[in-house]
């Protein structure tokens, strides 16, 4: 098990804490010796490190006091004690997006712990189990040691028309394959895992509604990421190998990047005290829904990336000598409008948060889905506009090596000259950043992961449908149209409008 | 002056209070005897009446306690004492949109009083004037008597390339033409005035930034709507005369409608104690900007209309027998998503409100503009989708007279039969409501007025541009791209990001 | 039967030809004495009249030579003898849209005759019937007498989940209720009938795929619109009664308008020689598909209306004094881009036309659907942009009566003054035209009918799906991705790509 | 000079013809020995080779008879002799897009030769020069030898607010620096050059309107790509180095790719007989406008890429086991609709082509701009939808090396299993193809180059504005609104509507 001696404080200490672990990580078919020093992995570690530094620099934003441990803790480890706490998660997320221009990988863990807070409480209430207390102990420990927690939810899923227990291969969803006095053994694989190998612990959770036959799949537990039996296979992404090239221009954002792995579990042990659900299959969907409710609103982080992209577009317009041209200005305004539309939905969702039985606050579900749904669309339009503003040189620019070469360097200096006073190198840097965010390594996070993370667009539409209270709305229309003798039966299972018209608690 | 004997309480009492006034209102070239009983005007009065009834029915939402008068007052007369008050304005606005399906005409007055609260305070601070105290007296009076206040801002403007004082005809902007001991006399005209003749008092205000030569145009004052010298010319709108036809189906929404007039002032007197600005031209733009800041976010009301339209679309889908068809469901989900995107921006703007020197709260300006800007686009898409769901019958449906006729009525009953069990009349009613909101009388409020009210789209883009803090964002990009020796000078005059990352006050 | 003595030549002669017929038309619950002189109906007649005048004025465009009658005939009565003829239909349609700003109501008849040309030929081929020759005789007659032909396809449909023969009431689809030596008797009702009472003859056709049990519904025949047993119920539309008010400003487009009626058949007789299908139910879907193939591309007419709306937006920008403002210009460019995108799809569909067995040309189906599908979206955006450019005065403008009044007229002249040199009346006229096209009477044709005419959006999506040849495209992708051992079986039933890559015939 | 012995016929022969040339190409700072065998360059050569093979396989489409040489020639070398020829260019372009999934790099040369055909004719007409005849000789030669011609237009431009002759460094636009009896010497640099090093000859042309002072910049001439003094610097693009990795999966499209270089001219000689403009600066804008008129419509090629992407989306939907899910189907239909909207505009532009004085046909300019403008938007939406359909695995998929590895390969085989019967490898292949086209190497061509090639979006808007004939359209509106005494002066310089209503020539 994890043997941290004293709490991690800074990003640097965090990076130190990752070294020397016995992780089995494969990349390009080979075992990675030390992920921390691998040039393609390191940027993703730097992004997480930033979450530590921010907590040091901006306490109110990122280092709140927890009533669980009684200490100030990193907000990513904090259980939301008010709607305001939810709002502050969003604000911290935007800030970190601005500082890294990429995914900083800690939201899944934060959202997992928060959703487990209420779910374990309600399981215990029904089944007389002790999950909630165990969870609190776990939280206390990670808060105190200040660890990074990954959350592993998405199973590989196999044939999507079949339930976990119906799959030809039972391992296509993570499940208990054995158990003894001390705990359980799980086998399976989780796909699209963000930042797992940059974590200290991960929490495994089911990925969907389960039925009685799927009982063995109803397992939630925490385990160190270097637990025996885990294999990580690193995902490849657009332009990933540029991190391994010399120089720091072509990579676009040389310091920060995201990380996605497939995590394979082969009889991995979870001790009893780290188990937070074990067979209570009927709570799987509650957990998933609460997790996605938090998590869809966590995509506000993308407005921080949007800020960077808007800034890059404005900078390149200036370097190109056209910052005052009306259509250029107009495009940058449009980018801003769209970016803030995303932000607004996240903040509104958090602000309309409400207290659960366990005491934790959960944000509004409708607006969280609206936020995420905008995230599946608007960043693509921002990216398109950024490419428009950047000009064609975005995709025809020669390499940094060319720029450094004695033969071609001077030619580029001569011929890539734009407005006088602008360094060619700086122009290249901004262009490569835009490439990075719209078709390169961080486009993965800014675009495709915006599309599919926390559920693909259709998942949000389903959830919006569930809460849109058509009965209530039809009745509004019927009232105004004076429809005769055809009242709506309003059997709504959503509380959205109750929340909309609720008087905020002081 | 206004001689209300006792406070108005209900909608009915409000309607009573409007009767018998000596208003000079022209409609179709003729003087209207009694607006209250004019069938084309009455629906707009009913809409205002609903704002009284709601205050009776839902105190927390619409009848808060004012620390000015110490009484519970209608929220439309309330000065916002917290960010939460701003949020509750939005919630009330959505509710009233749901209940009326139209513009209820009181937001201008509310937003005018709130923006005057801080502006008069700051004028006094600079000039040692007494406007703020006068305003508080006025507010106390209207709160106590529970009156409707209109706000008259938009001048007719003449040649848009010239300042008020430069126009060929000096009356194209409202201005002081004379003054004596008791007060001032004003002449001019205000266009696009919403609900003025349904008000008890109106507040005149300048419509734009003024310069020294425009001093006479820098006049803010309150006056009863029946003050001598005022002429109202009623605007015509799509399908307006249907309100004057027999029957209640074809009109779509027989009870509620909006109202727009042109108001012409011919030497209208404003007594000194009702003057809140008089010549302090340099504060005109502050007033206008604060007013539009409040008012652009007030367009959240349109989400209430959106709820009605979504409900109508869902109802007609059911009447057409296709509520489960996947593309129909999908369109209704899309309508909901767009509608809530508007709502979110309003709520977020209000939530990010901050306290002004005078004590009143002002919402965030960027997000208010984002809210309004979405309002200039998304309702049009909602309307398009509603027409898609409704089917072609929306525009080929015969008249109610046909339905009531002995010859054609039975034919319609036979041939307009859809799904069994559905009354043809109810189907007609819902279709006419959709027509009303997408191309009829209330389309004016739901669409065109959504476009131009509180400033046309371009006005929001200018305001968004002012606050988008490109310097800050460019620096973010330069940091990540490691741009060398080219730091941004960040002379931002916007506080948007300060607000974004501010810790909410408890 | 129709008793025209000599061919109609001009619009005036056409209007004359409509007078004195014994039509049973109901409007507002009452029988209309003479539709030709009814102020609400007349604009729709004027629009049809324009199709005659154009043929006189522009022979090449609108008065081609027919190889059936050997004479020059109105293009609306012409059977397409080349792809070029199809293209010229589109060009004429755009021109008439420009000249009338509304629906000129003759495309259904044109498209019906063209689709019957090939369908009757193929029925005869299979069944040995004589429909094609009968149709040719009918065409010769109407070509010679130069008559207006309406096409009546859309049945009222009742419960959409049931086939015609399964409906509770058998009359919900038009069907044969009796027959004798001379012909058949039909009963039923057709909804959304465009311009029927402005026609001389109409052709009834089934509205959907039929099965054996629906044999009696498989009837196609021509009959004079004043045949005994027909009742017309006039549809009401936005702002329709403005045509009946004094003055010509408020109506927006005083001369031209559309017309939609419900047509009810009560044992209406069709003589044998006018029957073009009688029981061959398996050809119903062929007829419908060919008709919609022609007709969806006929919506190119809306680009003519788009031209008018763009012109109106440009004119009002000028009257408002802002024609050079960059965002205004940009919006007008965008309107043009969208309008031409529609046009292009229509022209491309016609150009890729091909010859049928009967000799008539049929345009490409995919592109016709793409054209119509754009028509269900882009005019709404054009309308939104036109409202944006117009300004709020669009919906607050007082009535023409006010403008003519001695009291308020001078006030409007004074206060609606914009840029110097612009007549207030002209500004009002253009504003009312924009209102007319975006929310008034002709918005019905420009928007809602654009949505639903010739099939609602989903109908186009289904048809696009049928022709998109995914097998072919999947194989393209598999080739490039070097997918192993998984070739596509390409059982495409579409010839789209064959057409795309076909060498045009000279 | 070029010394081809016998005409090139096949793709293979073409590749052979490129070998052993003395080209100075830099890539990653180093001189490339033999571009033909460089793994990163070769895919772009393969794409050009396909244009030869198609001419062999589909003569009617790609190997027309030229009346210049009297022989059948590759269509890329053909001068359009009819509107049909223009249409066939489009059809060939779509086909090649389908076959390669990338840019095949020959359109610039084709469009340059066609625009020079008419421009040289008109220069000669005015100045009595002999350019046209020289051009015909050049065309005859390249047609006979069947060579690839590149066109070099876009200068690097320096400070965009200054004319060529005003730049601090005169070389920022290509210009004549010396001349002798035999010809001229040019210096400068062309950016964003597509496929130049895959060509045999290139034609240099000015990039914008020139004034008298820019006379030395008014040079058009043909020269072999290996002429002394030319340096090529290869542009880097998203994921470009994957072509150099082992395996053929991760690259997505292993066979085909695009190519962009910067071309630097240092006193490069052009002999007199290869000069087609020399100082006639007033014809520069005519040449540029005609070139972009052809070239903007040439972007129809992107519909071929769209077909591949649609096919890939359909294939992955099937591999994911969800081909029948309604929202998936709907997204593929939408992709098709958008793709065909682009195609339609191209075809319509070509079809509305007209004959120039020199005999060559030029397509319609308005519709060409509409086509290209759609290309700057719709492929981005297609890409977004493809990423939606693909699922998150698109950006988390492990590398091919992993799949081939003895340790991780079996894990991937086990856990990436989807629907039974689907090979994991094939699923990976299709996913990588989608990545390739939406964020990888061919996204450059499908997206960013679609944005900026042949002029950025704003360039099309300017051109649309020039041709939108607002005077004509305002008059249409004024006619219908019965505007009094304010006729439009129609000084349109566009012939668009003349073309729209023109009777097509037989």
UniProtKB/TrEMBL annotation, chains A, B, C, D:
Presence of the UniProt keyword Aminoacyl-tRNA synthetase in the record: no
Gene3D superfamilies per the UniProt record, alphabetical: 4-hydroxybutyryl-coa dehydratase, domain 1, Butyryl-CoA Dehydrogenase, subunit A, domain 2, Butyryl-CoA Dehydrogenase, subunit A, domain 3
GO molecular function annotation: lyase activity; oxidoreductase activity, acting on the CH-CH group of donors; vinylacetyl-CoA delta-isomerase activity
Occurrences of domain HpaB/PvcC/4-BUDH N-terminal (ranges): 10-277
Keywords: FAD, Flavoprotein, Isomerase, Lyase, Oxidoreductase
Domain HpaB/PvcC/4-BUDH C-terminal: 285-481
EC number in record: 4.2.1.-, 5.3.3.3
Name recorded for this polypeptide: 4-hydroxybutyryl-CoA dehydratase
